[in-house]
Amino acid sequence: MTTQKRNDPFIRNEKEAHLVKTAAELAERFAARAPLHDREGSFPFENIQDLKDSGYVKLTVPREYGGEEISLYEMLLMQEQLGRGDGSTALSIGWHMGLMLHYRTTRSWPEELFRSFCREVVEKGTLLNHFSTERSSGSPSRGGTPQTTAVKTEGGWLLSGRKTFSTLSPVLDTFLVSASIVERNEIGSFLVRSSDRIHIDETWDTLGMRSTGSHDVVLDQAFVPDEALISSYPVGQKPQAPSDASAWLLHIPACYLGIAHAARDFAVSFAKSYHPASLPTPIADLPTVQQQIGLLESELLVARHLMYAIADRWDKDPSGRLQLIPELGLVKYVATNHAISIVDKAMRVVGGASLSRSLPLERMYRDVRAGLHNPPMDENVIRNLAMRALAEMD
């Protein structure tokens, strides 16, 4: 089941209901394709095309440049709905959707370049992601310095290196790359266009989220013009927190809550319809089954209430966004860990049949596990909460 419940308390008005309906219709298509893409580890090109054709990819683009400029809250409603259909597709497109919201809010690009790129998104369906992680240096969220280098040349830069976890790579003609500017001892973010100096090494063969196309992207002296240097900061200096507090990353917990919600719906439907010969009624009448359903329902409600409450606060109070950083991290921590627990309980309700590849639960079980490895990491979230609590007592 991927369609939204009519009485979903998090849908507050007609506009949100319309947005969720659009996402639910897409999710229905994606759900039908998800088992095969998961089994093959193939990229869902047709899903991405559906997202482009529907206008989904321009929803977070500024209105002044042809987009719909939907809010963070509205984006999460739609991303959660997509997650109910196919987690891999939801997580993949979430990077584009979130980044466009992020750059719309922070305006950290040169304005003319941003205007031009937004027009590409609106008119051509151009997608975006930022490739930062490298096998040798690890995640930039843990302080890794890029081994990818940018060397100055006439009129621009030559970029060389390998990026891992490059989600959406099979369909990206344009993407951001972080690289070390050696002669300036800085780390820069560059807007890169596809060329014959860039290729994809198809390394993505994983337990979960098998259809995100998160292959390695290899750059071999790829040229980017001077104006493609978006921003830079000194090596060893922690970059200043962006003015939006990176709330766009909430697309991650929205995706995993969508998967968890789909698992919940499957388990509840199964419990109400499965009537073994040994019982006079369906298993939904068993106290042990009701206990599992009640527990997973409580976890889902807690996580959804937290996510949408924080998103609503972020939307309504721009001046207080930086103070929300610990809570934004907490949303991801709660959502991903609860999602794992929810899918586990759903499988307990269904029983041994839940391990069958003919049912969606085993795929959901593998997919939600991936959430632990998306930013921010659990230990960083807990540390931020601890540091704030300690600071409050000074």
TrEMBL record:
GO terms for molecular function: acyl-CoA dehydrogenase activity; flavin adenine dinucleotide binding. InterPro entries: Acyl-CoA_Oxase/DH_mid-dom, Acyl-CoA_Oxase/DH_mid-dom_sf, AcylCo_DH-like_C, AcylCo_DH/oxidase_C, AcylCoA_DH/ox_N, AcylCoA_DH/ox_N_sf, AcylCoA_DH/oxidase_NM_dom_sf. Residues 132-221 form the Acyl-CoA oxidase/dehydrogenase middle domain. Transmembrane segments: none annotated. Gene3D superfamilies: Acyl-CoA dehydrogenase/oxidase, N-terminal domain (1.10.540.10), Butyryl-CoA Dehydrogenase, subunit A, domain 2 (2.40.110.10), Butyryl-CoA Dehydrogenase, subunit A, domain 3 (1.20.140.10). Residues 14-101 form the Acyl-CoA dehydrogenase/oxidase N-terminal domain. The keyword Ion transport does not apply. Keywords: FAD, Flavoprotein, Oxidoreductase. Residues 134-146 have a biased composition (Low complexity). Residues 253-370 form the Acyl-CoA dehydrogenase/oxidase C-terminal domain. Residues 131-153 are annotated as: Disordered. Its cofactor is FAD. Belongs to the acyl-CoA dehydrogenase family. This is Acyl-CoA dehydrogenase. It comes from Brevibacillus centrosporus.
